[in-house]
Amino acid sequence: MNLEALRNLVENNPEIIEGNVPARTDSDATLGVAKFIAADEGNLGRLSVRQQHHFDNFILPLIEHVKCGGVFGPDDDGGDGCIGNGFIDDADLDNCYLMDEMLCQECAEVQNRMQDDR
């Protein structure tokens, strides 16, 4: 679990967490769980079954094994997809949220080269 990325989302981008919760599911509860975990140093042992469900389904996908958006967009949007391994490295995830660019290192390098060539 990327605790640094979780804290960034809770403090600066709670709308990303709320946006990852399906309709008719309590996004306030999910955000509460995210805040609790961030404040408790990532301790999951004190979560109830319901809280664990919110964590596993709506929070964890935002902070672990996060898919790269691809240089030309994700595959499912008709883009060419990621040129790397398909996932953002844990060490880069917090910065991706800060920069609002969900790209792995390989895709970020290609994008930077393309911008430099302009």
Description:
With 118 residues, this protein is an all-alpha fold. The model has no long low-confidence stretch (mean pLDDT 91). The protein is built from six helices and no strands. α1 packs across α3 and α3 (27-39) crosses α4 (49-63). The protein starts with a helix and ends with a helix. The radius of gyration is 16 Å and the shape is elongated. It has helices at residues 3-12, 14-19, 27-39, 49-63, 90-99, 105-116. The protein folds into two domains: 3-63; 75-116, no CATH class.
SSE blueprint and pairings:
Elements: H1 3-12, H2 14-19, H3 27-39, H4 49-63, H5 90-99, H6 105-116
Helix pairs in contact: 1-3, 1-5, 3-4
Task: Provide a brief overview of the structure.
With 118 residues, the protein is mostly helical. The chain has 6 helices and no strands. It has 2 domains: 61 residues; 42 residues, no CATH class.
Low-confidence stretches: none
Q: What do the pLDDT scores average to?
A: 91
Radius of gyration: 16 Å
User: Which band does the percent of strand residues land in?
Assistant: under 5%
- How far apart the termini lie comes to 38 Å
| Outline type | elongated
What's the total helix number?
6
* H-E string: HHHHHH
| Number of domains as seen in the coordinates | 2
Query: Describe the biggest sheet?
Result: none
Keywords:
single chain, 118 residues, mainly alpha, elongated
